[in-house]
Amino acid sequence: MKKILPASLFLTLVMNAWSQPSPPLRVAIDGMVHDHVNWILGRKPLGDIEIVGIAEPNQQLVDAYVKRYGFDKKLVYPSLEKLVEAVRPEAVLAFNSVYDHLKTVEFCAPRGIPVMVEKPLAANLEQAKTMLTLAKKHHIPLLTNYETTWYGSNEMTYDLVHTQNKIGEIRKLVFHTGHQGPVEIGCKPEFLAWLTDPVLNGGGALMDFGCYGANLSTWLFKGKTPESVTAVALQIKPNIYPKVEDEATIILKYDQAQVIIQASWNWPFGRKDMEVYGQTGYIFCQDNRHLSLREGEKKETLPFTAAELPSSRKDPFIYFKNVIRGDIKLSPSDLSAPENNETVMKILEAAKRSAKSGMTIRWSEL
What we know:
This protein has 366 residues and is an alpha/beta fold. Helix content is 34%, strand content 22%. It has a nine-stranded mixed beta sheet with strand order 14-13-12-11-7-10-9-8-15. Strands 3-2-1-4-5-6 form a six-stranded parallel beta sheet. Helix 5 runs parallel beside helix 6, helix 6 packs antiparallel against helix 11 (338-357) and helix 9 (205-220) packs across helix 11. The chain starts with 6 loop residues before the first helix and ends with a strand. The relative contact order is 0.14.
């Protein structure tokens, strides 16, 4: 005769099961030539992410990171193929060149391994389309990580615009993104080797920092695409950046709004800020936490300090885990979503064409 658990005991067991934290996501790192790899290597151990392998053939680079972070060198494999064969990760984080994002997805997608790449999605639109097709065919999450996705100020701005209707419909967005230049701020040689290459990065400052405004504007417009793209690119420091532009301005025309993206390796200091102008007010986002609002007929501009994002999506790695585990469902306009980043790549492609030809590129031409 089967024993039947008392209802109270059964409920306790169920509640305990629900309250147990899910096991850590077993991730592999593909490449260490992107300086953003410091983000995951320097992340505090929280029990939610476990690095089970690193694919990097450059032993000098590996030694430098081992010295800095103290991880076991046994985690390192000469290739992603060797790594996956040995440790079978649940997901892969790509910290290789933007051009090599495609190789990562070509390997991982048929094996059902989710991938998160650093921004932008790809070095060119053709690569992006191939990656998105592979991800869709093999049913894997393919996310793109931007630093600004994790800014509480941007999240609060979205709420002020779309939930609280503080400034009416958006009429103009202005983005200032960039820094003094990757050489000037001391990026590693391995990073500079591809970041300043027109093929491996797809361009210079236009790709490196133009993607932020394209990503955020697509999100704030809930996935809406522009009617046309116009861009101007300059090479102010050809002695430092002989192959790529170090200055770019991109203008996106919508039916009732305009977006101006100023991407630069010539700012006197690093910045990622945003101005949002609506019908009845404006919002200025100075950095990741601080913003200000002026609305209606009020003369004063009110300062705000935004809250940090919820623990379930406070950084790219826990977010990636929760998407993979099904605890977060992506919408097409989400900052990391494939659909948003296909639009980003089309904007960047149009901007490069416009800067080269001196002509405005219509969306229908892409």
